[in-house]
Amino acid sequence: MLSRAVDLWKKYLNSGSRHFTTPSDLKQNRVLNLLFSLNYIANLYLSATALTIYFILLQRDAARYKHYFFPFAIINTSYVILITGVIFLKNRWGTFQVTYLSNLIYTSFCVVLAFFLGERVGIQLILLSLIPIIFTVYEYGRWLDMFLQTGIMSVGIVVALFSYRIMQPLYPIPQDIAEVAGYLTWVMALVLIFIYSIYNWKQVYETEHKLYDEKNQTRNLLNDVIPQLEFAEAKYRHLVDESSDMIFQMGDTSEILSMNKTARNMLGYAPEEMVGLSLYQFIPDGHEGDIEINRNIVRERMKDFFQGGDYITFKTTLRKKHMYEPLDVQISLQKTQRQGQLDILGKISRVEEDVSQKFLQKEKGRYVIGNSVTHAEILSQKLTERLSRHFSPNIVATLRICFREILVNAIEHGNLGISFDEKTRAIEAGDYMQFLMKRQQDAKYHDKKIYVDYLINEHVLMFRVSDEGEGFDHHTFIERAKNDPKLTMLEHGRGILMSRNIFDTVVYNEVGNQVILTKRIPE
Fold first, then answer.
1. Partner residues linked to 248 by β-bridges
2. What share of the chain is helix, strand, coil (3-state, %, to 5)?
3. Among 47-51, 103-107, 286-290, 504-508, which stretch is predicted with the lowest mean pLDDT?
4. How far apart are CA 218 and CA 214, in angstroms?
5. How far is CA 65 from CA 61, 76, 179, in A?
6. For residues 99 and 79, what is the distance between their CA atoms, to the nearest angstrom?
7. In the list 182, 229, 367, 377, which could disulfide-bond 452, CB 3.0-4.6 Å?
8. Is the dihedral of CA 515, 500, 423, 375 positive or negative?
9. What is the DSSP letter of 255?
10. Number of C-alpha atoms within 13 angstroms, CB side, residue 202?
11. Chain segment 142-177, per-residue pLDDT in tens
């Protein structure tokens, strides 16, 4: 039975602790719960004293004092209910600000008793004796809380003293009994202060020891963990710096935040030269009159990455610091979350040759793509990577660029019906990608496809690209190119002319919506 009572007492003292985490807050929560419980004890003591006095008064003059019972019963019961409500609010919302409400309730209760009993009981002395509790509830330095709480009790004392001067007690009692009641109440207040102070000092002592133990545990843990973390960091740094790939960290705006030393070997840039710059700044300009095409293709892949999954890999080219020829690379990106912030870890690798291509003797097939420039880039990479066994890397790169330009022409000027003048105006306005996306979404164009047939064997490479557009006057275009070798009057069309230079034959059908590209493979 006793152990059950002890458990319930401990449970009450820790009620509301789920809202608090620090040792000091947990300590204050327990102390406040004790302080609230002392209100019940004090009220019980006052009720017992009042009943004793009431029965004594009834013996002296029952007719005069019998109506004293209900007013005192009402204020004592109301006080208990209000304090219970304060405890509920503290445990429900997890705030210590309810002490203002409890102080106001207690002070009001004492003021009402002063109105009832008058100066002889000395209720103001009880309020005055309880003011020191305020300075033990709040930590050193919380002067505003101390000032406000003291102010509430001081106002109560002033109101009680003032009432003695302007009004008679509502329920006066004989002087001898009033003095005894005052002494008993004051003694009880001092006893409660003593109990509270002892418990508060005990909680402070236990909290300090708990903090001391936690400090020692943390120190010991750090002594064990820090060397391990330093070793792990050194090992990780060694793996990153010695990697044959460029390892980097990037923000959600594509700004490079960190870069390993491999950047110097692959691109010629020191890591600190790349940090703070955007990844797009290292992507070379495009051809065909649109210098942003390479960067826009990567932007589209990055857009898919940010809106889609946590991982993406794609191929592109990066410019070198001291060489004109760009480097074909594969970029892999991985999203990570750290302290609620998005981090992107990246790896840039050289494009490795597919060993299986060495055994390829003949391959043919068909691809069907939509009106996406990104898809054109992916397909051009896919088909030209088969040529590494037959041609030098420079020629393969040129074939890929020219083939991509043919695909882009089929998309833009074929299926989407974009004229050279429209493209020129959009590029000059700086909103070509928005213009292209709007045209792609147009119901008149968005269902059209590009058909790519290809043949690769030991003797010839052949591509046939067909679109569903209205074609163009390729005869006139070729004649213009012959008469204008510097292309000073052509804003676009360089992709077609580049293709005529790298491929052995470039043959259009009569309409101009299909082209066949062939290139002999050297023995």
1. 259, 346
2. 60, 15, 25
3. 286-290
4. 6
5. 6, 18, 18
6. 15
7. 367
8. positive
9. B
10. 9
11. 778 888 888 888 898 899 888 888 888 888 888 888
Token output for 257: 């935040």
Residue 52's identity, in one-letter code, is T
Contact 506, 496 (CB under 8 A): yes
Report pLDDT digits (tens) over 73-105.
898 899 889 989 988 888 888 888 888 888 898
- Pairwise CA distance, residues 307 & 300, whole Å: 11
Mean pLDDT of 265-272: 88
Does residue 465 sit in helix, strand or coil?
Answer: strand
Dist. CA 381–CA 400, nearest whole Å: 6
Give the residue among 71, 101, 72 at the shortest CA–CA distance from 86: 101
User: If DSSP codes are grouped into helix, strand and coil, which group holds residue 513?
Assistant: coil
* Residue type present at position 356: S
pLDDT digits (tens, 9 = 90+) for 460-490: 999 999 999 888 877 777 777 666 655 444 4
User: Nearest 5°: phi and psi at 442?
Assistant: -65, 130
Separation between Cα atoms, residue 110 and residue 104, nearest integer Å = 10
3-state SS of 376-428 is HHHHHHHHHHHHCCCCCHHHHHHHHHHHHHHHHHHHHHHHCCCCHHHHHHHHH
Q: How far is CA 128 from the centre of its chain?
A: 51
**The model scores a pTM over 0.70:** no
**How far apart, in whole angstroms, are the C-alpha atoms of residue 445 and residue 438?**
10
d(CA 412, CA 427): 13
* Each residue's pLDDT tens digit, 275-302: 999 888 888 877 655 677 788 888 888 8
Distance of CA 124 to the CA centre of its chain: 55
- DSSP E strands in 171-310: the ranges are 246-250, 256-259
Q: Where are the alpha helices (DSSP H) in 242-327?
A: 262-266, 271-274, 293-307
E strands, 93-180, in order: none
Dist. CA 520–CA 505, nearest whole Å:
9
Angle ∠(508,432,410) on CA atoms, nearest 5: 15
